[in-house]
Give the backbone structure.
Amino acid sequence: MNKIPLGILICIALSMNSPMASSEIYRWKDENGNVHYSATKPRDSESESIKVRNKPSSDAERMKKNLQQKREAAAAAKQKDGPKESFKRQASKEQCDLAKSNLETLSTGIRVKRTDEKTGEISYLDDEARNEEKSYNKNFIDMYCSNPT
């Protein structure tokens, strides 16, 4: 029979119970009915234990690759052009990415809020304003983002 060294068994046991594998969060309501979350169990309130798995976002790897590609493209553009042209190209690429992101958000149907810069008042886009914004972003993408740089 194979014997597993004690050190390996201890490492396995510790890794299964590590905070990185999963953690516990406690949820409770205070006397005012406000919901609270904490990593420590409250002493004077009844709480509900919630298991949380600590995994990286499913988008993390894609975002990491995207960032690396952007860095490589910026380095290549910097070598190809002078600093002024490289800056212009990067600015227009960022504007195109922003317009594409805005269009994607507007197309999902979720509520989109705006904050008035002067008053701080929050408002939500109605269907007409949403359609205007979608049209603006589509036109911007067609005009400035279609040509490869």
In short: The helical segments are 6-16, 60-80, 83-108, 127-144. DSSP finds four helices and five strands in the chain. The mean pLDDT is 76.
